[in-house]
Amino acid sequence: MACAGLHWTLELSTHFAFQYGLLALAVMAGFACLARPLGLALTAVVVGLHSGPLLELTESPPDRAALTPGGTRLLMANVRTSNANRRGLLELVESTQPDAVLLLEVSEAWLADLAPLEVEFPHRLAAPRGDNFGIALYSRRPLIDGRIVQLGAAGVPSIETGLEGSSLRLLLTHPVPPMGSGAAAQRDRQLEAVARRARELGPRVVLAGDLNATPWSPVFSRVLDLGALRDSRRGFGLQPTWSAGLPYLVRIPIDHFLVGRDVRVLHREVGPRIGSDHLPVLVELR
User: Fold this and answer.
1) Is the omega angle on the peptide bond into residue 51 within 30 degrees of 0, that is, cis?
2) Which of 232, 242, 238 is nearest to 280 (CA)?
3) pLDDT tens track for 200-218
C-alpha cells in the first residue's frame, strides 16, 4: 500500500486526528472569547476537517431491536510480552465469559502461566515468540481448519480459523509498528496481504488484531476497501485502546475488530487495564 502515497512520518501523524480536532476546538473557543474573527474562521476550518473523529464521541450504539439473542463473544488482548500480570487477563476472561480468547504478544512463559485457561478453553492455536509478535487463540469450541499462517514479508505469524457452531471465519494478526520507512513498508504489505485474505474468506470474516493503525489513516481505509470490511467501532464511540496509561482523550484506537458485510455487531466495549500498554476489546458478533 506504500502508505497510500504518504511518507511514513506523514501517515503516522494521521493517527492523532481526534486530538488535532480537540486542540483546534479549544483554540477556536479562545479566538471566539477574544473576538478574533480571522483566527476563529481558520480554526473553524480545522475543526471541520476533523469533525468525523470528534463526532465519534457523540455516537450511540446501533439499534438492536431487530436482533435476537445468541452471538459469538470474542475477547482480544495485546497482553504485552513483558507484562507479568497474568492474573489480570485470567480474571478478565472469567468475568466476560467469551467463546474465544485472542491474544497478541504471547511468549512461552505467557502460555505456561495461562494453562488454567485450557480447562474451559481446550482448543488452542499458538505461535509464541520472545519478541512482541507471538500470537495465540483459545476456544471453548473445536477449531475448524485452524492454522498458523504468514501474511506479508515480515515473518510474523497470524492465525486463521473457524469455530464449530459458527459460520464466522477468524483472522488474527499483528503487524510491526511503522517506526521507520522499512517497518512502515512491512506493516503495509502485511495489512494488504491480510485484507486480501479476508476478502477471500468471504462476507462472514472477522479480522482482529493490533493493526498499528487508526481509523483515520489512509492505510486503514485501504484495508477496509481491499478486504470488503467494516469497522466494528462504528456506532460505539471512540473506544481508544493505546496507550492504556494515558487519559481517555489522549489514547488512540489501534486494536480492531473488522467484519465482513454479513457480520452484525451486537456489542463492543473496551476492557480494563490488565498490565499491558493496550486495553482489551470485547465484541459480540453474529
Assistant:
1) no
2) 242
3) 999 999 999 999 999 999 9
CA angle 119, 125, 127 (to 5 degrees): 120
The single-letter DSSP state of residue 199 is H
Cell of 235: 456506532
Residue type, 3: C
DSSP 42-57: HHHHHHHHTHHHHHGG
Q: Do residues 140 and 75 touch, judged by C-beta distance below 8 A?
A: no
Cα(126)–Cα(84) distance, rounded to whole angstroms?
19
- Which of left, alpha, beta for 259 (phi over 0: left; psi -120 to 50: alpha)? beta
In angstroms, the CA 280 to CA 275 distance is 11
* 157 three-class SS: strand
Q: What is the grid cell recorded at 273?
A: 487495564
Phi and psi dihedrals of 59, rounded to 5?
-70, 145
Grid cell locating 177: 509498528
Share of residues in the chain with pLDDT > 90 (%) = 73
